[in-house]
């Protein structure tokens, strides 16, 4: 196993930046299952392997093996068999199949009430190929990695596999399994096949060490957390759909320095969660791929949140993106709502070691609580950020305890007016703040028009709004802009293009002038 050698704040963010440029085409080669040498499923994996293997257990060679060395195991209730001549690492006892040695094991068939147990040595790598497997258990978890250096779960091309645990577990001790797919060792899931995991008792997929999701078509339904890694959780590729009563996807090591981080660098992740959507104790990074949190209490949550690429969409009952947690705090000089209302409200707020940094990609938030919230500082230097914030004045589309620094990208943050936060004094890109004299109904186009009559931006509301903060390179500091509502738009929501034909003029605003009560015609 590769040791974790770097601190999270340096390694995870640097890794995200390096992966953001990795977009090699997919080639789609797989193992034959009978002879020859299996290879990685995509060129993307080969490219990213070199960058992540220093920071995780994952290695590009993990997905390459000599198929002639495979041990074939045929599963059947009361009649599981090892059909390969080399089977010293496998024991069958009733409906329990125990793998005790390093190697590659190809499983097929079903156990309606059984268990696959990996109890290998601490330096052993165990590769399990699921080739049309249905696993169930009436008293616990049906797939447990009790001990190994690393376990690799490979989903065979064209195969459909299911893992379903019991509604209650006979063993509920401290180190006992608590998920349908449970590993005490580093775990990698890969392969072009499909896997459905149903966690009736508690969690769906759990690694008590590191977890890398390299590929696969995986669906998880869980009573509590959907997918949980401890030291780190990494999504490189594949399509992962998670429905969870608790948190959707997380990394939760709260005790070891530099661990508890989560990275999405590719693939697609769809989450419906009863609690937080995607969560890390330390740093949560999206550098590529697609993240769609369709339901959550808080959409993305970590001490540090960095988005450098990809496409992120969040719907939340509370905060959409929330930088908070167990880090240390300090009182800010000048405090306040971070740059909001033209540099803060003056004292009272604490600025902790938290951050939200957006440097690329797209981030779209629909939040009933704060939209983009940092208990520390926040910066936007690239990409596109669209916030459909709260309708109540107790929350804001933007809520930053420290400084909100905008130096690039495009920002449109709409919501209530009572807690409206704006870019701070360190921002090098200008913007406008609009506070409407009356609420603007959902679905209404809002147009920002320059002195020449050109429409600089059109924003279509998804809910009733009282304020809008907009910043982009198209806004000239100190220039005057006229605001219109109505007219037409070329999309039904968010930033788009449009026309002011038939629109109603609301007044004017001046770029760079931010005050809480400012509205069109009141500067």
List the helices and strands and how they pair.
Elements: H1 8-20, E1 37-38, H2 43-52, E2 65-66, E3 71-75, E4 81-82, E5 90-93, E6 96-99, E7 103-111, E8 115-119, E9 125-136, E10 143-147, E11 150-155, E12 160-164, E13 179-183, E14 186-190, E15 194-199, E16 203-207, E17 210-213, E18 217-222, E19 227-229, E20 232-235, E21 239-244, E22 249-251, E23 261-264, E24 268-273, E25 278-280, E26 283-286, E27 290-295, E28 300-302, E29 304-307, E30 311-316, E31 321-323, E32 329-331, H3 340-343, E33 350-352, E34 355-367, E35 372-374, E36 377-388, E37 398-400, E38 404-415, E39 431-440, E40 445-449, E41 455-460, E42 465-471, E43 480-485, E44 488-489, E45 494-496, E46 498-499, E47 504-510
Parallel strand pairs: 3-7, 6-8, 7-9, 8-10, 9-11, 9-12, 10-13, 11-14, 12-15, 13-16, 14-17, 15-18, 16-19, 17-20, 18-21, 19-22, 20-23, 21-24, 22-25, 23-26, 24-27, 25-28, 26-29, 27-30, 28-31, 29-34, 30-34, 31-35, 34-36, 35-37, 36-38
Antiparallel strand pairs: 1-2, 3-4, 5-6, 32-33, 38-42, 39-42, 40-41, 40-43, 41-45, 43-47, 44-46
């Amino acid at each position: 196993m590769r040791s974790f050698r770097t601190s999270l704040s340096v390694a995870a963010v640097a890794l995200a930046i390096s992966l953001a440029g990795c977009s090699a085409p997919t080639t789609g080669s797989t193992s034959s299952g009978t002879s020859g040498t299996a290879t990685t499923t995509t060129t993307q994996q080969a490219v990213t392997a070199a960058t992540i293997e220093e920071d995780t257990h994952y290695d590009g060679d993990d997905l390459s093996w000599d198929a002639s060395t495979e041990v074939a195991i045929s599963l059947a209730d009361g009649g599981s068999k090892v059909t390969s001549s080399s089977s010293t690492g496998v024991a069958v006892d009733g409906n329990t199949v125990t793998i005790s040695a390093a190697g590659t094991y190809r499983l097929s068939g079903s156990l309606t009430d059984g268990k696959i147990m990996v109890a290998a040595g601490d330096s052993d790598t165990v590769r399990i190929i699921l080739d049309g497997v249905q696993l169930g258990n009436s008293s616990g978890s049906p797939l447990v990695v009790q001990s190994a250096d690393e376990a690799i779960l490979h989903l065979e091309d064209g195969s459909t596999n299911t893992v379903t645990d019991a509604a209650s577990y006979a063993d509920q001790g401290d180190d006992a399994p608590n998920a349908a797919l449970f590993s005490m060792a580093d775990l990698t899931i890969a392969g072009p096949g499909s896997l459905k995991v149903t966690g009736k008792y508690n969690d769906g997929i759990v690694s008590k060490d590191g977890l890398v999701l390299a590929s696969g078509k995986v669906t998880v339904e869980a009573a509590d957390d959907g997918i949980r890694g401890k030291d780190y959780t990494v999504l490189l590729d594949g399509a992962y759909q998670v429905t969870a009563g608790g948190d959707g996807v997380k990394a939760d090591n709260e005790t070891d320095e530099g661990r508890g981080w989560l990275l999405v660098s590719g693939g697609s992740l769809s989450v419906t969660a009863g609690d937080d959507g995607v969560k890390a104790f330390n740093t949560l990074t999206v550098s590529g791929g697609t993240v769609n949190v369709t339901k959550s209490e808080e959409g993305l949550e970590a001490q540090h949140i960095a988005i450098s690429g990809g496409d992120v969409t969040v719907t939340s009952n509370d905060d959409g993106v929330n930088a908070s947690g167990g880090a240390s705090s300090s009182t800010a000089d000048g405090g306040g709502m971070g740059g909001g209302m033209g540099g803060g409200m003056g004292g009272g707020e604490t600025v902790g070691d938290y951050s939200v940094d957006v440097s690329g990609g797209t981030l779209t938030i629909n939040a009933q609580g704060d939209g983009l919230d940092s208990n520390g500082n926040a910066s936007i230097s690239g990409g596109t950020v669209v916030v459909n914030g709260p309708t109540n004045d107790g929350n804001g589309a933007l809520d930053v305890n420290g400084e909100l620094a905008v130096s690039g990208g495009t920002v449109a943050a709409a919501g209530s007016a009572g807690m409206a936060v704006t870019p701070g004094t360190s921002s090098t890109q200008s913007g406008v703040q609009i506070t409407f004299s009356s609420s603007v109904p959902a679905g209404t186009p809002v147009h920002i028009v320059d002195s020449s009559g050109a429409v600089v931006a059109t924003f279509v509301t998804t809910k009733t709004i009282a304020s809008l903060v907009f910043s982009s390179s198209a806004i000239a500091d100190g220039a005057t802009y006229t605001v219109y509502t109505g007219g037409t738009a070329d999309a039904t929501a968010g930033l788009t293009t449009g026309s002011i034909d038939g629109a109603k003029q609301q007044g004017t605003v001046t770029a760079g002038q931010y005050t809480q009560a400012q509205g069109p015609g009141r500067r």
